[in-house]
Specification:
The structure holds three protein chains of three kinds. Chain A contains 15 helices and 27 strands. By secondary structure, chain A is an alpha/beta fold. Among the domains of chain A are: 121 residues, Succinate dehydrogenase/fumarate reductase flavoprotein, catalytic domain (Flavocytochrome C3, Chain A, domain 1, Alpha-Beta Complex); 108 residues, Up-down Bundle (Methane Monooxygenase Hydroxylase, Chain G, domain 1), CATH 1.20.58.100. In chain A, the strands form seven sheets. In chain A, strands 8-4-3-12-20 form a five-stranded parallel β-sheet, sandwiched between helices. The longest helix of chain A is centred in the C-terminal third of the chain and has 25 residues. Chain B is mostly helical. Chain B folds into two domains: 77 residues, Fumarate reductase/succinate dehydrogenase, transmembrane subunit (3 helical TM bundles of succinate and fumarate reductases, Up-down Bundle), CATH 1.20.1300.10; 38 residues, no CATH class. Chain B is built from four helices and two strands, in the order αααββα. In chain B, strands 1-2 form a two-stranded antiparallel sheet. In chain B, helix 1 packs antiparallel against helix 2, helix 1 crosses helix 3 and helix 3 runs antiparallel to helix 4. The N and C termini of chain B lie far apart (82 Å). By secondary structure, chain C is an alpha+beta fold. Chain C has two domains: 101 residues, Beta-grasp domain (Ubiquitin-like (UB roll), Roll), CATH 3.10.20.30; 151 residues, Alpha-helical ferredoxin (Fumarate Reductase Iron-sulfur Protein, Chain B, domain 2), CATH 1.10.1060.10. Helix content of chain C is 37%, strand content 13%. Chain C has a five-stranded mixed β-sheet. In chain C, helix 2 packs parallel to helix 6 and helix 7 crosses helix 10. The chains are: A alpha/beta, B mainly alpha, C alpha+beta. Chains in contact: A-B, A-C, B-C. Chains A and C meet through strand 1, helix 3, helix 4 and helix 9 of A and strand 1, strand 2, helix 1 and helix 3 of C. Strand 1 of chain A pairs antiparallel with strand 2 of chain C.
Chain lengths: 616, 131, 258
């Protein structure tokens, strides 16, 4: 129970002056490019635009301070072909087979060609890549990759990447930051995007930011689930913003479970642990992955690419599920079922050099020192493969609107993303988006704004209408119910019945959301209101996920079914799912063809069957 | 327009009393007063030596006054406190590495104590030699 | 094992309260709960209006700094079990203006981070921009500890010099400056010298050392600043004997490349 008690400062709660809750707009800002989201993708786009055209005005809008963006939590590394014996074709084939042939192959070709150059650019900007003894950049093994091609900065690659981009961006006077500005909506008029409307969280003011091009770089939507590796800010904002403007979301059914999250919290334990030679054990101390087509068992301390612990994430998470069904996981009194990630054979020196953050996290959040004990782990929702449909130039179907990073679906990841492809994706496509947007800004002019102003007023009023002290529904309760519904029906394995139940629950949650209770009418850091706005985004994204999943009557990559559709069906489902928003009901689901260039669909094979990466 | 009204907390004069780290820090800073005072006493002695035997004897007599003894004891304690706390900080000032590996902080501290002991010994021997 | 714990939170709602006040909440206690979990519980069950920042809940995003019983800490990496059954007092980070409840205004701090030229400065265009430069593990180790800062602001809340005079550049910014000065790929030391030499640069520090104690990432800003003082003194002496700072910059780089 909450009770007010006398405090040392002042026991009374101040004056009785209630907040007015009625600030209206203060300013409208004109700029060339508006970028929503200032994580790795948004910053890379801003840098590319500023370098292409230093005279451009670039508004970098983030609901947090850029360094808080969730790129910061990426650990393992970023893939790019750099070793003499490695080949672009191999990176291509690993990615396409890892994505279970749902990748846009022209996009993958473009990506693997650009990857190393982007990572090198980052080196020139000061990123502290880990090095070999002779000073060359070091690379490590990663799941599903046929050879070592993952560049890393110990196990804080995302942190260092984000820091480098953020600090480099400080050099460009054209980049104007709007920190702690929450994007309420896109401004669309005359068939193209014209800017955004954002809430300044500190001032409580609403700003109209008019722009010639808008880049969405808001990250994924892992928070639609309860147990996930994502930060609290990963609420699918950009996905929902584009979706509500009828930009299709593609392949939303593919949600990646990372095989090694810490139980209880879901804190990420990097795949780099296994890249360095860590092993996964069930309750009997048995390396169970060999029972799931990933063997033969490799000797401890000699990891082999695409084998055992270095299989792809979808397969590893599915293997955990089977072990759980067989009762071969460990049962922890507080955390439930776990398996063990054993790093002890790596030794303290190697762990401290390559995996210091994992050691820190395991000690703090699992009370285990990996030097002396195995780490308890279980799969946790990690990444949304799908997103706002874009082409190879990061452009969406809405003229002037670009999407990049986890919120986008360029078609790179297909049905299952390989670890370390997404950090490189931020750079490759962030740059493309920035350059393309700069191009558009050069050839477009801003419209006169009275109509936009009215539209922005309407957006502000809609957002304000969510403040409803008389509402009956608790926002935290709705949020938790959503997370549970998604886990129940849209987990590692799915059934028609379970998914339908989840779809029904989401429909009901969306109805209840209209009566959400938001009591705080104040303007300064009204985080209660913010949470309610975010929940609205989460619900729309979740609905797209579940209906996309229902429509995919096959099993592929991260979408695996236990009902009549247990295998891949290239005849009917070698195609993308497109989810289109409707005001009055579930989304309209359509399909689009998959671009195949050089790699026709084949059996996905790992371990002894995979024979390295040369599978085509 | 903004609804912001940031509250700036005043820093009370007693800020250093509320945290033991700050109290130890202020004590370390205060040792300077005693070390400085001791320096003045030595200067007084030098000046007495220059003025002649009478002044020098008066100076020596002054040193054996109970108050002077108390001051010297206190100044010694303060100087030692300063020495210990300063030596504890020295590893930060000397980022020493051998190859990739940092030299452990306690080695740096130990080296300082070693040098301190050596200097003290030399001074004691010199003093014994004079007598 | 499971009981209740009392958490006192400092509140300040700028549109209602003339000044901050304390409010106590009695929460369900579990030993694995962090201070951040406790704040979530207050917000979800007791007072939806409580404002605080958070995101990653794994001590890397730097959002959730606050004062726990007067000590600057990350909420996500501070556990109730280390205080239980005593009550805990949570306040906003010291020395910063309070925006609302536990949220402080970090703009001055962020501006200072930006002002130290925290990026690689090169004298000339790189010869081979398409290739990564070499940097040995030993060269990397020279600056890597200073590159771990998550800009959480705990060190500013720990620094009485910043509290007394907020023109002082402060621990994190000067540590960041030091990080780039020590990078073998950087040649910008001379450009950063005026910042270091200024009264509010390294000489504003009196070596309290508390910043390094509270840093959740082991950055050791006190070391960085006081090593900076040595660089600053050397620069002063060189100036006296007529050597230009530009020469110093080159020397420093050569030292870095060794």
């Amino acid at each position: 129970m909450a009770g007010q008690e006398g405090g040392a400062l002042d026991s009374a709660s101040g004056t009785d002056r209630p907040p007015s809750g009625s600030l209206s707009f203060v300013d409208s800002i004109k700029t060339d490019i508006a970028i929503v989201g200032a994580g790795g993708a948004g910053l890379r786009a801003a840098l590319a635009a500023a370098e292409a055209r230093p005279d451009l005005g670039i508004a970098l809008i983030s609901k947090v301070v850029p360094m808080r963006s969730h790129t910061v939590a990426a650990e393992g590394g970023a893939a790019g072909v750099v070793q003499a014996h490695d080949r672009l074709e191999d990176h291509f084939n690993d990615t396409v087979s890892g994505g279970d042939w749902l990748c846009e192959q022209d996009v993958v070709e473009f990506f693997v060609r650009r990857a190393a150059a982007e990572l090198t650019q980052l080196e020139h900007w000061g990123c502290p890549w880990s090095r070999q003894a002779d000073g060359r950049v070091a690379v490590r093994a990663f799941g599903g990759m046929g050879t070592e091609r993952t560049w890393y900065a110990a196990d804080k690659t995302g942190f260092h990447l984000l820091t480098t981009l953020f600090q480099t961006a400080l050099r460009h006077p054209g980049i104007r930051r709007f920190d702690e500005h929450f994007c309420l909506d896109l401004l669309v008029a005359d068939g193209r995007v014209q800017g955004v409307v954002a809430l300044d969280l500190a001032a409580g003011a609403i700003r109209l930011i008019q722009a010639k091009a808008v880049i969405l770089a808001t990250g994924g939507a892992g928070r639609v689930y309860r147990f996930n590796t994502n930060g609290g800010i990963v609420t699918g904002d950009g996905l929902a913003l584009a979706y509500r403007h009828r930009v299709p979301l593609r392949d939303m059914e593919f949600v990646q479970y990372h095989p090694t999250g810490l139980p209880g919290t879901g804190v990420l334990v990097t795949e780099g642990c296994r890249g360095e030679g860590g092993i996964l054990l069930n309750r009997d101390g048995y390396r169970y992955l060999q029972d799931y087509g990933l063997g033969p068992e490799t000797p401890i301390g000699q990891p082999r690419n695409r084998t055992m612990e270095l299989g792809p994430r979808d397969r590893l998470s599915q293997a955990f599920w089977f072990e759980q069904q067989k009762g071969r996981t460990l049962r922890h009194p507080v955390w439930g079922d776990v398996v063990q990630l054993d790093l002890r054979h790596l030794g303290e020196a190697r762990i401290d050099e390559r995996l210091p953050f994992v050691r820190e996290l395991a000690r703090a959040y699992a009370n285990v020192d990996p030097v002396h004990e195995p780490i308890p782990v279980r799969p946790a929702v990690h990444y949304t493969m799908g997103g706002i449909e874009t082409d190879c130039r990061a452009a969406t179907r809405l003229p002037g609107l670009f999407a990049v990073g986890e919120c986008a679906s360029t078609g790179l990841h297909g049905a299952n993303r390989l670890g370390s492809n997404s950090l490189t994706e931020l750079l490759v496509f962030g740059r493309v988006a920035g350059e393309e947007a700069a191009q558009i800004a050069a050839t477009t002019s801003l419209d006169a704004s009275p109509a936009l102003r009215r539209e922005a007023d309407a957006i502000a009023a809609r957002a304000r209408s969510l403040i409803n002290p008389d509402g009956q529904e608790s926002v935290p309760a709705l949020r938790d119910a959503l997370g549970e519904a998604m886990e129940a029906g849209l987990g590692i394995f799915r059934t028609e019945e379970g998914m339908q139940q989840t779809a029904d629950q989401i429909a009901s949650l969306k109805r209840r959301y209209r009566a959400a209770r938001v009591t705080d009418r104040s303007n300064v850091f009204n985080t209660e209101w913010l949470q309610a706005l975010e929940l609205g985004f989460l619900l729309d994204v979740a609905e797209a996920m579940v209906h996309s999943a229902l429509a995919r009557r096959e099993s592929r990559g991260a979408h695996h079914r236990l009902d009549a559709y247990r295998s891949r069906d290239d005849e009917r489902f070698l195609k993308h799912t497109l989810s289109r928003f409707r005001d009055d009901g579930p989304p309209e689901i359509g399909h689009a063809p998959v671009t195949i260039t050089t790699s026709p669909p084949a059996q996905r094979s790992y371990g002894g069957d995979g024979r390295g990466s040369g599978e085509r | 327009m903004s609804a912001r009204r940031p509250y700036i907390r005043p820093m009370p004069r007693t800020w250093w009393l509320r945290n033991p780290v700050f109290r130890r820090y202020m004590l370390r800073e205060a040792t300077a007063l005693f070390v400085g005072g001791y320096g003045l006493v030595l200067l007084w002695g030098l000046s007495a030596l220059r003025q002649g035997e009478g002044a020098w004897l008066a100076y020596l007599a002054g040193l054996s006054h109970p108050l002077a003894l108390a001051f010297h004891t206190l100044a010694l304690a303060m100087a030692l406190y300063h020495t210990v706390t300063w030596f504890a900080l020295t590893p930060k000032l000397m980022p020493s590495r051998i190859g990739n590996r940092p030299i452990p902080a306690r080695w740096v501290k130990a080296a300082h104590y070693g040098l301190f002991a050596l200097c003290s010994l030399v001074i004691l021997l010199l003093a014994a030699g004079v007598h | 094992m499971n009981g209740t714990i009392v958490i006192e939170v400092q509140r300040y709602r700028p549109e209602q309260d003339p000044h901050p006040w304390w409010q106590a909440f009695e929460l369900d206690y579990r030993p694995e709960m962090s201070v951040l979990d406790a704040l979530h519980q207050i917000r979800d069950r007791h007072d939806s209006g409580l404002a605080y920042r958070w995101s990653c809940r794994m001590a890397i995003c730097g959002s959730c700094g606050l004062m726990v019983d007067g000590v600057p800490r990350l909420g996500c990496k501070t556990f109730l079990r280390d205080y239980y059954p005593d009550r805990i007092r949570l306040g906003p980070l010291a020395h910063f203006p309070i925006e609302r409840d536990l949220i402080v205004d970090l703009r001055d701090f962020l501006d200072k981070l930006a002002a130290v030229k925290p990026y690689l400065i090169r004298a000339a265009q790189d010869e081979r921009p398409s290739e990564p430069r070499r940097q040995t593990p030993a060269q990397l180790a020279r600056f890597l500890p200073f590159a771990q800062c998550i800009s959480c602001g705990l060190c500013y809340a720990a620094c009485p010099e910043y509290g007394l005079n907020n023109r002082f550049f402060g621990p994190a910014a000067l540590a960041l400056l030091h990080r780039y000065n020590r990078d073998s790929r950087d040649q910008g030391r001379a450009e950063r010298l005026p910042t270091m030499n200024a009264e509010d640069g390294v000489w504003g520090c009196t070596f309290v050392g508390y910043c390094s104690q509270v840093c959740p990432k082991g950055v050791d800003p006190a070391a960085a600043i006081n090593q900076g003082k040595i660089v600053s003194v050397i620069d002063y002496v060189r100036h006296l004997v007529g050597l230009s700072p530009a020469t110093l910059g080159q020397d420093a780089t050569q030292e870095g490349e060794r």
